[in-house]
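Let us work through a complete example step by step.
Step 1: write down the sequence.
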Amino acid sequence: MKKSRILATLLCLVFIFSACGKDGNSAEDSQPAYSGGLDEATMEWTGQGGAYKMENIELPERCQDVDIYGGELYYLVQSEPDINPYHILRGDRELGTVERDYNMEFCVKDDGIYMLDVSFEEEGRRISLNKYSLELEPVFTAELNGMYESERYGYGDVQSVKISGDKIYLQVNQTELLILDSQGQLTGSGHLPGEGLSLALSEDGTLYAAGETAEEQKLYRLDGETGGFSQAFTCPAGSLFDGGDGSYLLLLTDDGIYSLDAQGTASPKVIWSECYLNPGSIYKVKAEGGKFLCLGSDSCYLLTPAEPAELQPKTELLIACMDPNGMDMLAARFNAHSDEYYVRVVDYTRDMEASEEEIQLRLNTELISGKAPDMFCFFSGWISPNIYAGKGLLVDMKPLIEADEDLSPEDIVLYKALDYNGGIYVMGESFYLDTMAARESDFGQRYGWTLEEYRQIDAGLREDQMCIYNLTRELFINSIIARYVRYAVDWSSGDCSFDSPEFIDLLRTALELRETPEDPNNMVFGPGEPRVAAGEQTTVAVFAMYVSSLAESEQMAGCPLSFIGSPTPDGSCGTDASLNTELAICSLSEHQEGCWEFIKYMLMNANTDRGIMPGYPLLMYRPALEESIAKAMADEDAKVKMTRADADKLLDFLDAIENLNDYDKAIMDIIKSECQAMFNGDKSPEETAKLIQSRASLYVAEQS
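Step 2: predict the structure and record it as tokens.
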């Protein structure tokens, strides 16, 4: 009976969205074809590629690159806090260190270790190719400065290094080719047959240049006698890599690794789905001894040939993504971790020419046809996940959290804000905050203020002062009125209340507000916190992405701040929290236990490092958040040195937040269009509220 009601809801959803856009092929059609692999019934191999065991390689901390030679892994590891020196490891053993400011290439060959390095010295930038023995003893240093025609790309002039016997090929400024001998001496130069080409060596040492298009790529072969390039063949689109282990060349594609012969014929070697590997951010592959080393931006895998009997079948979990937003990399890490489940990501935004309505229609149509995913990954700003939750399409995760042996409600940050009608239907790895700050001396330590307070404060200000910086009617609608939607709409019942006294009061405030737009002729640059401290404006917008964001605002203000958020009708907490990833479990899934294992893995294995970002992330899993805070407090190079008091203030603030951003584009479009008539003087706030209620009621009811 429950599934019948859900299917009825879906039929309605499909009807709604079919009116908004033309039908299209399913997103499944644009994804790689997955077939074959291990037959669980017979334990026989039916895959297109080979059978491989996957080993997840735990990279050393701050590892910048990895290579394989002679069955051993070599690591290039960055020092901390300074880049210098680099540590070179063979397995667990450190070979030594090298003093370089920046490394651009690291590869291990029969005759030694090659590193393309950049150093910044008083006389300027120095680019060099350095060769070491396999025990890291210096062999030669080739100074590359002055060898090529131009230096237009800064320290990235040299894009690629290829070593073939006694020849070293360097790609410079995309189009130039340098040829060095085995001692690093320049022996020749030339030009590549176009820009943006990548280089690869065939198994016999022939140099190829590849130019990729959407459907295929042309490969050009270097003539060793003339030094010129000629077109060799075309092959499917993908990243070209050096050949080896019987493969003339290797081709990395969305669905696997292929072997290319000398005529450009592609044969599958590894199909990702057949070895339960999500490619994620894999950007480098190397074949050696029948194995494949696959390196991603935050992961590394070693694929070893295996007999079917050695392989463990896994249950596939499908995630339908409105925006992947790093989901591929998360799935790749989980797949390497789990012996029972394999997560596959389907990106419904892959066809970027499709409208939001068309993409939504594709998903709903597939749900109707029995192709329900196991999980949804929603994208904020499209349709609200609460629509799906209200119609029984999402699993309430609150009982799963409460029954879990490894997690408790106290472990989930923003637990109160996640609640929708008594249940928790979406979860994320990290989040950010959208709030407003004012002087604590003016407001006290609290987390909200009322519309009436806003009006009174604004009425008492001088002409040169402002309550909310750069306030316009559009901003008022997008931020303050938008927050009312969560109170006004009940997706479960199909009711809404946009004609209430509270909403009319919001409209009247928007109509009568004193706009304070930024003067285009005298733009105020720099942070607004000092202006708040000086009394020039009452509040400043704070967009918090890191654990130190609030402390940074207070430091810039030079005084304690109260993070009151936007004014609300009742003075409740006016700060919105937004999940960077909104992950939900589909109630039609037959593998809900596996879905919860994936979500739990996401929470409990969050990355607490700063990485390339300027701060440490705000994480949903409280122990991970506290670790992130501890790292921020211990970081001597941080822009803002957090104190224990800063940390306590942040944690208290997070516990007070009640609202998860629930932006529904369709409803906001209705509000904006009707408010415009009110701003033009054609409608009163009461009339506008009535029209919004009529249109919104129809929209909400259609989806019930």
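Step 3: interpret the result. Residues 431-578+660-702 form a domain with the D-Maltodextrin-Binding Protein; domain 2 fold (CATH 3.40.190).
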